[in-house]
Structures are given as structure tokens and as C-alpha cells.
Amino acid sequence: MIQEINRLADNIKSLLEPFGKKHNVHEPYFDKNSIGNIKKCIESSYVSTSGQYVTDFKKKLSLTIGSPRVVLTSSGTASLHLALNVIGIEGKEVLLPSMTFVATTNSIKYNLGIPHFIDVEKENVNIDPVKLEKYLKLISVIKNNRCYNKSTKKEIKCLILVHAFGHPADIDKIQKLCKMYCLEIVEDAAGALGSRLRNKHVGTFGRFGIISFNGNKIITTGMGGAIICKNNSDYKKIMHLSSTARIQHPWKIEHNQIGYNYRMANLNASLGVSQLKSLNKFIKNKKKLHLMYLKLSKDSDLFDILENSNGNSNYWLNNLILKPQYKKFKVKLIKRLHKNNIFVRELWTPQHILPMYKKCEYSNLDNTIDLWQRTISLPSSFYNGL
Q1: Theoretical Cys-Cys bridge with 93: which of 116, 211, 217, 385, CB 3.0 to 4.6 Å?
Q2: E strand segments, 53-145
Q3: pTM (2 decimals)?
Q4: Domain span at residue 361?
């Protein structure tokens, strides 16, 4: 069996070899326009939170997403923090998958909310609507159009719907459930820019949607994020809070509440403008890479490739899932790949296992644990010439 695992690692190496000798899970790609925009921005001296690139990037991103109410921020985490702040979750429970990046959970605690973990589907690592419905029937009660946990007596205020690895979640079923149980939806579409369901961009279904432009995302601004707002009232609140809650005035510097310096800098936005031009090219390239990995899996009895089951994915990250009987060889496969300069990684450690969150409530998480034990994230960068 060790020989077969080594052969699999060597086959992945052969697949990636035409694109270089060293491969990380995801690296940014910059063209001449990216470098040119940064140079122009520096020369303009407008490198902080005002400037033409902030205006241009916001406008172009709004057109890409299909929403006029987009706020640029300093990070995806800042975006989550602001969205949950406006919803108001202090002392209230927030449902979210245990299979997510820690920033999703941390943003709940920043707002003094209470994380409550739920399970995912095996097919796409997104929230399982069937298990969610069964769990809500078991633990909750509706009073005066609010959802309460029968055990803790706390209000369950909202659900954070993560579109894992760029794959759209089963939004239709989850929206119906959330309406039935009086829950707000925040879409964590951090890695899902360009992903759509019925030609509608993910992040535009819930009250808020979150995008990240971190260096490992499909496009990057170095650091940065965005919030998509469903209504004008929320949009105005987010704009105000993200700008240190400053009252607009020609010369006075006054603030009327505790706000946050969460604005995107013009220097970061200059990179975003050029990166956004390449989004469709990046998605096409990633789909080709996904098909290459998929073909490799069809010729092997050792593993499958995580596939999208809803809408159109941007295929931000490809994931290899070992067959159950081979999960004990996961670490050996990782070490062999690392030896080949292919620096794969595990999925995020489930949140309910982390020391600061292990006392939080959670549903049955069998799928979460099983996928964590069997899955490896593969190199998924843009490969020029693919």
C-alpha cells in the first residue's frame, strides 16, 4: 500500500511538473498591469484610504457581483465582524459549520456572540440542509418570530453560510429553513468570488455577503475584503462603522459612536482593479486544473476529488479525498508530496476541536470529522499556459 501512496504522490508531481518544480496550495499571479497600477498609485501619493483606485475597484466589483451596495474593507475578517455587529448577536447564538476557517468563528466572539456548530455535506463540504433541519427541529422553539435554543434559552439569531472552497452551498433549501426558523443569513463567500447559482452571485442571497482578497484567494489585493449588503439601511451603517464612525464635515473631525478603521487602502485597491480584469481567465484556468485532477482520480482507486454540486463554482481550491479504507495513509501522502516540493495541507481543523471553542454547543459532526481525516488541499494556483 505504501508503494501505491508513493505512486499517487509521484503522479501528482508529474501532473504539476510542466508548471514548475515547487507548488504551494495557492499563490497569487501578477501581470504587468498589477505592477503598473501599484507604481501609479505610489506616484500619486494617495496610498491610504482615499483615492481613485478605491472608487474604481468598488464600482467594478459591484458590477461583477451584481449589487450596488458593496463596501470595501481591510480584510474578510473585518467584513464578518462588521456584518455581525450590525445584525446584533451579543449574548445570542450563531449557527455555523465546524468545518471553516477560524476567522468565521472568531468574528462571532468579537461581537460577544455564541458559536454553535453544525455539520456539512460529504459531497461539497458545505452545510447539510437535511441535518440542519433535523437539528433545528430537535433543539429550537419559535416565540414571537424569534428562534430560541430550548436547552440554553438563548436566542439563535443567525446562520453563517460558508461557500467552502468556492463551491456554492445549497442556498435554496437553507434559505427556506432560515425563513421558517426566523434566522438571518450571512454568507461567508470569502473564497467564492465569481461563483454563481442560477446566474446570481453568491453573497447576494443573505442579508450580508462576505468576500476576501487575501493573498491566497482567487484574486488578491494583498489584504482586503468586501461586504455585500442587501438593503440601503445596512449599507449606510456599514459604511459609517468601517470609517471609524466619523461624521462627514469639511473640517471637523467628530465621531458619534464606536467605529472601526476597516477601510481598504487605495494601494490595495490599485492591485484589485488589475486583478479583477483577470477573474474570468483565472476561473477558466482553475476549471481546467480541476478536470486534470478529476481525470487522475478516475484512474485511481485510492481517492476522489471534491466536486461542486450546486451552481457554478470558481474552483478556488481543489481537494483530494482519500477513500475511507486509506485515510490512515493521509500523513504519509502529505510527507511524500512535501518531499516532492508539493506543499499540500490538511483542511482546517474543525472549530469544535480547537481549545477556545471545544465547550461550544454542536450537532452531530460525523461528516465534518470524516472529511477532515481524509482530505488534502491540492495546489490550485493559476498556471500560465494551462
Answers
A1: 116
A2: 70-73, 93-97, 114-118, 140-143
A3: 0.96
A4: 2-30+278-378
